[in-house]
Amino acid sequence: MNRILAVHGSPRGERSHSRRLTEGFIEACLAARPRAVLTRREVGRASIPHVGEPFVAAAFYPQPESRPPFMQADLALSDVLVDELLAHDLLVISAPMYNFSIPSGLKAWLDQIVRLGRTFAVNQDNGVAHYEPLVRGKQAVIITSRGGHGFGPGGPNAALNHADSLLCTALGFIGIEDVRVVAAEGEESDRQVFQASCAAAERELVKLAANV
Ligand SMILES: Cc1cc2nc3c(=O)[nH]c(=O)nc-3n(C[C@H](O)[C@H](O)[C@H](O)COP(=O)(O)O)c2cc1C
Predict the structure, then answer these.
(1) CA terminus-to-terminus distance, the chain
(2) What is the distance between the alpha carbons of residues 171 and 176, in angstroms, rounded to a whole number?
(3) Annotated binding site for FMN
(4) How far apart, in whole angstroms, are the C-alpha atoms of residue 143 and residue 182?
(5) Per-residue three-class SS string for 61-74
(6) DSSP for residue 48
(7) Ligand 1 atom at shortest distance from the alpha carbon of 94
(8) CA-to-CA distance for 5 and 212, rounded, in angstroms?
(9) I need a surface site. Which of 19, 73, 155, 211 has the fewest CB within 10 A?
């Protein structure tokens, strides 16, 4: 693992717990591998445009090799974000839970990088579409903070957690199947409960930094 892409999804800056935990993880990764390089991509506090009709028309244009220039322009940011993803081998996403899912800026980024012909392909088999992932050899770590409790695997609210499942499914769809999720829970509980959860997440992340 030599190239780390950190995608920050929280709209909060210094107050963001997922961002703080992620920065701590990155620091541990860089300490373990001094020659690793880091790129940060802000999506929580920057505006990644939502997908609109021009994007859809351009992304699904039937002859991509002869896509007109105005359509290429509609995909320019997506191309930058896809190139950026492909140029790194460890993807680290700070992803707060928002309304049982992820903040809209992070979803907008996801919509830009799940790209036909660039990160996945569609093959027809007797008229039925089959999807083929095009991304290879990458790992991802998702670091999340949640206000509530019990959203992890086996927890009482696991079925309500559409954040981890969305990210893992979309990343798996494009070929990133080695995905770890580390969570701090209880930001809306009393301080000690949340601090204990953050401390457990930090311990897990330190171990993970030595193994990614
Ligand atoms: C708009 C909004 C929606 C939220 N939805 C949820 C939710 O569905 N479940 C939950 O446990 N916490 C929810 N929270 C609490 C956040 O997950 C919690 O504050 C988390 O620490 C935010 O991440 P950050 O500290 O990195 O900004 C929500 C917070 C906001 C602002």
Answers:
(1) 7
(2) 5
(3) 10, 16-18, 97-100, 145-148
(4) 5
(5) CCCHHHCCHHHHHH
(6) P
(7) 26
(8) 13
(9) 211
Q: What's the total number of domains in the chain?
A: 1
Amino acid at 4: I
Which residue has the CA at smallest separation from atom 17 of ligand 1? Answer: 146
Residues of the chain with pLDDT under 50: none
CA 59/CA 25 separation, integer angstroms: 34
Range of the domain at 139: 3-209
Distance 13 CA to ligand 1 centre (A): 14
CATH number at residue 96: 3.40.50.360
**β-pairing verdict for 120-125 and 128-133:** antiparallel
Enter the DSSP assignment of 60: T
Q: Tell me which residue has its CA closest to atom 8 in ligand 1.
A: 99
Cα 3 to middle of ligand 1, angstroms: 29
Pair 141, 90: CB distance under 8 Å: yes
Q: Which residue has the tokens 């990764």?
A: 29
pLDDT digits (tens, 9 = 90+) for 130-183: 999 999 999 999 999 999 999 999 999 999 999 999 999 999 999 999 999 999
Residue closest via CA to ligand 1's atom 7 equals 99
Q: What are the E-state strand segments in the chain? A: 3-8, 37-42, 90-94, 120-125, 128-133, 139-146, 178-185
Contact, 6 vs 92, CB < 8 A? yes
